[in-house]
Amino acid sequence: MRQYNDSEVEQLIDEISEAAEEAIERAAAEAAKAAALASLEREAAALREAQKWKQEAEKEKQAQMKNYVLTGVVCFLGGLVLGVSSTLMIGGK
Question: What is the DSSP string of 23-89?
Answer without folding.
Answer: HHHHHHHHHHHHHHHHHHHHHHHHHHHHHHHHHHHHHHHHHHHHHHHHHHHHHHHHHHHHHHHHHHH
